[in-house]
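Could you help me review a protein record that somebody else here produced? What it holds is a sequence and that sequence's fold in token form. I need someone to confirm that the token line plausibly describes how this chain folds. Take the sequence as given and treat only the tokens as open to question. This is what I was given:
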Amino acid sequence: MPSTVLILGAAGRFGQVLAKAFADAGWNVRAQARKPLSPALAAHPRVQAVRCDATDIAALTVAAQGASTIVNALSPIYTEWERLALPLADAALGVAKASGALLMLPGNVYNFGRELPPLLTPATPERGDVPKARIRIEMEARMAAAAIEGVDSVVIRAGDFFGGPGKGTWLDMALASNLGKGKFIYPGNPQIAHAWAYLPDLAQAFVRVAAQRAQLRGHHRLHFAGHTLTGEDFKWALEAQTGRTLRAGNLPWAFIRLASPFMPMWRELLTMRYLWERPHALDESALRALIGNVPHTPLPQALHSALADMNAAVAAPKLAQA
């Protein structure tokens, strides 16, 4: 019989991509969301909508019955992390405990703090020297502690997202936000490496890890390398897709700093600016040892699809370039 997965936050950017990936792989998908699913997901024969709040443990426990896997794809907006991130994570953990399902969480690089080293492995020491780092560390610590009570869990850590439906990534908010004007906007030092995750690839990695449920006892941390690119690399890739030379620009950080006391979102972005000034990449050797070849769409194809999702003008003949 097909396996069943409960996806929390299935109406979000990653949740939608996850639901499609699991359903297309033959899983039965129970898709939790407070709002209606996208028409494409709602029409998928293997997707069942679960309309409830993500903190409604009773409703989620019913939805999790018979599921082998739960994916916590819930992500509060930046300004709501301190209020919502841990309660949402605790709700997911409680449902996993009640159901016996494997709990999966998409992680990020916040855990390593302001001085994160150039290569991040699952054994890299964590540093809670910024608020979001402390929250992420605590989320994962609670998952690890629950292993004593029989909860199996996996964190798959990845870099900044791009691709998938909707808006809200650095690609659409900055890098490609002014392509129509022939401009490339980069938030930091364009000469240092930055970790990126193409969402369809990351979702496929989740599907393949979930298929190894029998091997995943206790708590595990895996890294997904994705694409490691400098700002210059990304600029050249966008130029290849658009068929034009782009002028380089940066975010107005001085103005953002001045306005941050009055703009909560800008204040949060300023706090995390260090990620654009520290080179970092993810070591996925442990993930590869578990699932074999890790899904990896070549950058031209991935970027072409991501720009198409944004309805950005791309030069189709450039797709085949390496």
Summary: The first strand starts at residue 4 and ends at 8. Residues 4-160+198-227+277-295 form a domain with the Rossmann fold fold (CATH 3.40.50.720). Residues 117 and 201 are 24 Å apart (CA to CA).
